Structure formats: structure tokens, C-alpha cells
Write the C-alpha cells for this entry.
Amino acid sequence: MNSFLLKWLFHNGNPIIKYLIAMRYNQKNNMRELKQLILNSESVRYWIHNVLNVKDTLKIHDSFDECFENAMGKLLLFGITDKINEIKPVLNYLLEKLKQFVLKKEKIFKHNWCDANIIAAYLANSGYHNHDIIKCYIKKRLENIDELINRFKFDIYIDKHDFKNIPSSFTGYPLVNPEISSGNISKLPGIFDLLLFRSIINKKSVLCTKQNIKKIHHFIDYVFDPQYQKLPDGYGIQYETGKKYYKVGWNISLPGFFNDLSDERNVKSVVLYAELFSYFPRAAATVWFHNVMKHLESFKTKNETYMFPGEYVQENKNQYFILGGHMGLGENRRKKQWLEIESTYWMLQIKRNIKSVYAAAQF
């Protein structure tokens, strides 16, 4: 722990930064006061309002701020979970919807398994990690991905010749084998699986067994295989009953895997991906992760703080949280030090994760 940087952040940061430091670095001074400050802040109220509306709209997946994947992602970034009573009814409502999906009583969600994966991932990181439905979902997700790896490896596509009425807009997309992705199920790894499996490690879940950790290792090895990184962006399209076709999406494309990060066009997700993968020692030991950390270290200032390029910590309306579109930590971006403060916090958080997971006996 870099005590100098923590003190610097606590002194210079806004209440959200102060609250995150107090919560994650076990500095309990003024926790109650800080929590109340952030809950009353304009930024946090905005995202809480969006989460509360989900109970009426059931908008889960899309780039809009009112969608659950962005609103809840932002609240989790601020350290807000089911312990905030105001949002708990919405989380319980979505848990019940997920239960219906798991039991396959009916089609519940607009985007089906994609919506379910988003809900499960966020609930697992919001205090529901040991709930029976969440445990059931995570266990099945591990089994499905492990089956893909063992049975299909990278042979995931099927000839489109026998499939009719494929829209002309999908002509250039490969068709994923329906045994792998169709309807209520997909065995393909997705970006939200990082959040889902992080909960096993980070929340000390009862699912943190040697067998499940082995499956997580398989998942990490698969994603970091160059053959996986060469798969088409978004995987391609999938077939639904009734001769309908949809884009799959949400493959885990690592920025800078084949190119130098300074030449990478889609680099806005690099800090978020570094933070997500920092929970997994298997990922933190890869060449890609070491290169990313070396790259981020190059932005260290003479004062030992960090100042990333602004695009690494973007905060823009109606962007996907999981692709790095909502990296802001509440700093006033007209303030001179905002970029230095937020960059430094992100870097300390990544390093803290690495240190914590390597200290865990399971690994």
C-alpha cells in the first residue's frame, strides 16, 4: 500500500474518491459521513434514478445511461451495492426475473442470455454472490464455457449454406454453431463473465473451490490464446428458432494484444480491462498484462502520481460501461488535477487487486 498516494488522494479527491479509499483500504474514519455525502451527490443520484427506473422498463442491455448494465456498473464503481436500501427492491426484482430465466419457464428478457448474464454478473458483485440462484447461474456458466473449450475449442462456426433467409446486412458475418449459441444459452465467453467470475474470488464465495478455480483458469487461458483473439469482433451471428438471426457480441477483445498500445485505435477500455483482469493471477501473469502495466507505468509523474491520456478514463453520456465509456470517478473535469487524481486512483486499485489475489491461498 502506497500510504503517500492514498493520503494525497484523500486530501485532493472528491467525496467519491474519499469514500472508495476509506472502504477499500480499511480507513473507516468518517465512513458514514462520506457515504451520506456521495448518496446525496448529483452524480450518484443520477445513476440511482436510472437503476430505479429499470423495474418499470426492464431495459438491461444497450448503450443508453438508463440501461441496467451502465447504471449499475457505475454504482458498483462508486462502491454502492445492495446495502443501499433504496436500490435493493430493484435488485430483488431482477433476481426474481433471473430465477424465472434459470428455470426456463418463459422468455424473460429482450436479449435473453445476454441480459441474464449482465444481471447475474452485477448481482453477484452487489451482495448476492451466495444466493442459490446466483450460485446456480455461475456454476452453469462455468460448465458451459468449459464444455466449449473441451469440445469445440475454436471451431465455433457452421456452414451457412443450409440456413435460409439470412438478412443481407449479415452476409459478411460467420454463423455460430447453434449448439454453442442460440436462444437461452451461449457457451461463448463474454466480457461480463469477468465480472461474474470475479465475484467467486473477490467475494469469497462458497463456489471458490479448486474445481471451479480450475475452470476459471481454462477460461483465462482460452481468452488469452492468440486463436481466440483472432476471432471476428462480436463473434458473428446466431440463429434463433423462427428463422431469426442476431449478432452475438461481447467477445473479449484485448486492446494491444497484437499491436503496441500506442498504435491501438480502440484503447479506451485498456484501464478497465486491466482492472477487471487484475483479480485473476492467471491473467496478471500474461505477457499482455505485463505490457499493459508497463504502458500505464509510463504515465507516472515526477511526484509518483499518474496521469493517463484522457481517453483512458472517459466519461461520456450513453456509452457502454463495460467498454470503458464511464470511467469517471466524480471529479470535476474542469478542475486542473482531475485527470491526475482519477488516473492515480485507478492505478492504485489495479495494483491493490494484484497484491490481494496473489496472497490468496487458492491460487
